[in-house]
Specification:
It is built from twelve helices and 18 strands. By secondary structure, the protein is of the alpha/beta class. The two termini are 57 Å apart.
Length: 430
């Protein structure tokens, strides 16, 4: 596909640096206290809207983006350096989805100019933090929390109030150039040969609206090629649709059938979009005698009972074009003014939850005991009565959930071996 309005990329935040384990070594201090510094925080992945961009082309060439990792802490309480953030610039209107589920993580439009999608891992505490009265020389420090990674799908959905749809050669571009001043700021979205042209219609009192001519929709849709869906994304934000048809019959097409084809295609893609207000612009009346002909009459008979107005115009001579614009403006005024902004459905923080509390599991050969230490374990022992059955069950669950049992098994512990924690000893049974 040559479209530069979608891309799939992999992003990763920086991992937090590990806390350091060290002790003061001074000439006359036999056992200096702990002085291991904290690890630095990892960098975050941030998306930012860049007005100068109107395509996702850059993301089709480079697929992987990673923020910097935090540095490990050092001795003498030296804190590790933080990792660099990575800032990804995207055009306004870019929707970021989690690639697997397709759920929206962020919609970079409206107020949303900057969004931190993945926070960097937090740096771990150095062992200086863990000295307690019972444990004055802790040999553990906290590991930094891991990096978070995500595969995301970027999709550009243009931001326009009105979508202009119709088959080729019905006069859409002539109409667009007549009624709008195409603002360079929303320059053309570069697709291969088809680009939604955006133009701004200025109304009185400094008000106005944006029209997008959505090409390509029908060329594919009518032949069932399904290319339509590529472009239908671009009308997701529009609030009103103008169907343009050739009322002079120059192309030898049946305008009513064309409108029905377009509406079927819309319905298939999204019933919610198909239900939005619509107007029919019967173009090329400069090429017919008088203001009405049987084509226009047929369109009125068929669509006006459904509440869809038919307005005959000539994009070439400008006849009636103002009344069409005014009609669209009237509909827009009654609709909520908020452009369609997609709500967040996927929260990386929750989905990628991580905790990292330090503990050490070591085998003490002299005592033939397995020794477990760590601040959370010390805290837990402070409020759990392991003598009671309930307390012991809770305690076993705690050891399992924190990965401590796994560590003991890695060290080759067997049933009946002794485990020691802060002066408490018990036998291990699986």
């Amino acid at each position: 596909m040559g479209f530069a309005d979608r891309a799939r990329i992999y992003i990763r935040s920086g991992k937090g640096g590990d806390g350091h384990i060290s002790f003061r070594r001074e000439k006359y201090v036999p056992n200096g206290g702990p002085d291991g510094g904290d690890g630095g925080d990892g960098g975050s992945v941030i998306f930012e809207v860049d007005e100068g961009q109107n395509t996702l082309a850059d993301y089709r060439h480079v697929r992987k983006y990673a923020a910097g990792d935090g540095q490990e802490g050092g001795k003498r309480n030296c804190r590790g350096k933080n990792g660099e953030d990575i800032i990804l610039k995207v055009p306004a209107g870019t929707v970021i989805k989690e690639a697997e589920s397709g759920k929206v993580v962020a919609d970079m439009s409206g107020e949303n100019r900057r969004f931190e999608i993945l926070a960097g891992g937090r740096g771990g505490n150095g062992n200086q933090h863990y000295a307690t009265s019972t444990m004055q020389a802790p040999r553990y420090a906290q590991p930094g929390t891991p990096a978070k990674e995500l595969e995301v799908f970027l999709e550009l959905k243009v931001i326009a109030d009105v979508g202009l749809v119709g088959f080729p050669n019905v006069g859409k571009s002539t109409f667009l150039s007549r009624v709008t001043n195409a603002r360079p700021k929303i320059a053309n979205y570069h697709f291969t040969t088809l680009q939604p042209n955006l133009g701004v219609v200025d109304m009185e009192g400094g008000q106005g609206f944006v029209i997008a001519d959505i090409p390509g929709l029908i060329e594919g849709a009518s032949e069932g090629v399904g290319l339509g869906f590529e472009f239908l994304r671009h009308i997701e934000r529009t609030r009103v649709l103008i169907h343009m048809v050739d009322a002079a019959g120059v192309e030898g097409r049946d305008p009513a059938a064309d409108i029905r084809a377009i509406r079927r295609e819309l319905e298939k893609y999204s019933p919610e979009i198909a239900a939005r207000p619509q107007i029919i612009a019967a173009n090329k009346i400069d090429a017919i005698a008088g203001d009405e002909n049987e084509i226009i009459a047929r369109l009125r008979d068929e669509f006006e009972p459904e509440g869809i107005k038919v307005i005959p115009i000539s994009a070439v001579s400008g006849q009636n074009v103002q009344s069409l614009i005014f009609e669209v403006w009237e509909i827009l005024k009654d609709l909520p003014d908020e452009p369609v902004v997609f709500e967040q459905e996927y929260f990386p923080e929750e989905a990628l939850l991580v905790t990292g509390d330090p503990f050490t599991v070591e085998y003490d050969a002299e005592e033939d005991e397995y020794v477990i230490e760590g601040p959370r374990i010390e805290k837990m022992l402070g409020y759990t009565n392991i003598e009671s059955e309930k307390g012991f069950v809770f305690f076993q669950k705690f050891l399992k959930e924190n990965g401590i049992l796994e560590e003991l098994e890695k060290l080759g512990i067997k049933d009946g071996d002794t485990v020691r924690m802060y002066g408490l000893s018990f036998e291990y049974f699986k």
